Amino acid sequence: MNPPKKTRVLVVDDSAVVRRAVSEALSADPDLEVVGTACDPYVARDKILELNPDVLTLDIEMPRMDGLTFLRILQKHRPLPVVVLSSLTQAGSRAAIDALEAGAVDVMAKPGSAWAIGDVSQQLAHRVKNAAAARFRRLPEPAARPPAISSETSSFHPRQLILLGASTGGTEALKQVLSRLPANLPGICIVQHIPPVFSHAFAERLNEVCALEIREAAAGDEIRPGLVLIAPGDFHMMVIWNKGRYQIVLNQGPPLHYTRPAVDHLFNSAATCAGPYAVAALLTGMGSDGALGMQKLKAAGAVTFAQNQETCVVYGMPRAAAELGVVDHVLALDDIPAALVRAVQSPPTRSAGSARPEAHSSSRNL
């Protein structure tokens, strides 16, 4: 029997030290093969034609042509899954979000030292394999954004809460959902698998294009109507019910499903304190994060949604939840905003007994 085909990777970075470190880190994974390296986009163009890689790792700051410009050209003329390595700076974080909008499948923070790549080699290999599994399509030409959905209800029960989880492909999926939601909805909490610092830039970008107020969550934040809180990279995010309001709890417990933040932690906490007042959706992403948490939410009476396979970049997390039988509705991405609005306009159909308010200290940081 023939051995399984390895994922072929081309490493693009202007630093010879980084190219060597990334190549060694990826080559240590038995499922990956580094077929070549390139010091700039012009060399990368020739290597792509010669070697036909499955995935590209791409630096942003390079001579002759920056990585973002190259990415836009590449995705227009020869679409290819790309994992961007970007610096952990404000400018680097903005560039990383630009790269996701330009068609990169994933972004990863470049360690401060090239030799520190070995410390994140497992995560890098995991992201490259995720990218290889992505449903990859040529980016469509920009089109007018569908109009925002109006809400027939101006006030909601104070216990109502919307929860969203996503991973690979999720940054763009979340933008499509949030940009169509009205500003008067109950509070929204989001876990998107994204590196530290990048999550802040991601929240800022969403805030520019959405009617809702969107920002990165901080410990102790009150979750209120019209506000969207995004879990900060490298922190698990949970919700508690404290003195008549929802609040955010953050911690840096062990990664779950290879990631921190993890959707399961958010969903598990909401199952306890929100129960039938919660509305939850799992969007595109590799793996199974969020499925078991959605199972707890469903058992507590929450309304649950999952993005369908046809519109997912990676149909992993939604599939896992659907296979557990805990998804009320599997929907195309374009249909999810309206479904969320309809769900919060309908009163809970099950008892709130599983979601009794619990006494917590507002300063608690588990």
Sheet having the most strands: 7 strands, parallel
CATH fold call of the largest domain: Rossmann fold
> What distance lies between the first and last C-alpha atoms, to the nearest angstrom?
50 Å
Spatially, the strands of the biggest sheet line up as 8-10-7-6-13-14-15
Helix content: 25-40%
Order of helices and strands: EHEHEHEHEHEHEHEEEEEHEHEHEH
The average pLDDT is: 89
So, CATH architecture of the largest domain?
3-Layer(aba) Sandwich
What's the CATH H-level superfamily name of the largest domain?
Methylesterase CheB, C-terminal domain
Counting helices, strands and paired strands, the structural category is: alpha/beta
CATH class value of the largest domain:
Alpha Beta
Q: What's the overall geometry?
A: elongated
Whole-angstrom Rg: 21 Å
Spans of at least 5 consecutive residues with low confidence: 139-143, 352-366
The count of β-strands is 15
Number of helices: 11
Number of domains: 2
What percentage of the residues does DSSP assign to strands (E)? 15-25%
Topology (elements, then pairings):
Layout: E1 7-12, H1 16-27, E2 32-38, H2 41-51, E3 55-59, H3 67-77, E4 82-87, H4 90-101, E5 106-110, H5 121-132, E6 161-166, H6 170-178, E7 188-192, H7 198-209, E8 213-216, E9 222-223, E10 227-230, E11 236-242, E12 245-251, H8 263-273, E13 278-282, H9 291-299, E14 303-307, H10 317-324, E15 329-331, H11 336-345
Parallel strand pairs: 1-2, 1-3, 3-4, 4-5, 6-7, 6-13, 7-10, 8-10, 13-14, 14-15
Antiparallel strand pairs: 9-12, 11-12
Helix pairs in contact: 4-7, 8-9, 9-10
